[in-house]
Design goal:
alpha/beta, eight-stranded parallel sheet, 8 strands, 32% helix
């Protein structure tokens, strides 16, 4: 299995965001993860399409994975597509018509995905999995960075991996929340291939050395090699 590391810019230094993203990608990260919160679906407010557009104008060419923690969803999808998003994922309970929102993301030229909170059932995947490019499992409750990993999400990961493999689909399985060197191997062994790490990457490296992310990305890769 090919593994991808997706640092969340929620934990980056926003005063020099372009430089932060350049450095983490140079150190071996694969995807730029956007946590978009609206102070409505979740009790926090973060970033919008202008930040995505700014990173593209800055010269970032890596995939940008936009996780929408917003309600309603459909209004903001075209804005992020225009701004340069690669993936757009959303929570099924935040859309009145899940199938329509998936189609809207696809028609906008982006790859759609669904996000499941720790206690959200997976039933909707029975009818949507073949229309998705990504399934994102939250291993913390959404809305805040720096939370501890919720272990029972590994059981959900195994279930989703079985569904993907049984249907022979090319769907990424991503996890977000509390992932770091101490548990990333166990997460990979549960069938996950894409790993969001915010605090573990940006939060672990506070100085201005452009190579400061090399060691943490290398540590994550070393654990994945043992999976």
């Amino acid at each position: 299995m090919s593994y991808r590391i997706a640092p969340s810019i929620l934990s980056a230094d926003f005063a020099r965001l372009g430089e932060e993203v350049d450095n983490v990608l140079k150190s071996g990260a694969d995807i730029v993860h956007f946590d978009v919160m609206d102070n409505h679906y979740v009790p926090n407010l973060t970033i919008g399409p202008l930040v995505c557009e700014a990173l593209r104008k800055h010269g970032v060419t890596a995939p940008i994975d936009v996780h929408l923690m917003v309600k309603p969803v459909d209004r903001i999808v075209p804005d992020f597509a225009k701004a340069g998003a690669t993936y757009i994922t959303f929570h099924p309970e935040a859309s009145e018509h899940i199938d329509r929102t998936i189609a809207l993301i696809r028609e906008a030229g982006c790859k759609p995905g669904l996000v499941f909170n720790p206690a959200t059932p997976l039933d909707v995947l029975e009818w949507t999995l073949d229309k998705l490019d990504m399934v994102l499992l939250m291993s913390v409750n959404p809305g805040f960075g720096g939370q501890k990993f919720i272990p029972h999400v590994l059981d959900k990961a195994r279930r989703v991996r079985r569904m993907i493999d049984e249907r022979k689909l090319n769907v990424s399985l991503e996890i977000d929340g509390g992932v770091g060197p101490a548990n990333i191997r166990a997460v990979a062994q549960a069938g996950v291939d894409t790993f969001v790490a915010g605090s573990a990457v940006f939060g672990a490296c506070k100085d201005s050395d452009p190579n400061r992310y090399d060691s943490i990305i290398a540590a994550l890769r070393a654990e994945l090699a043992k999976a």
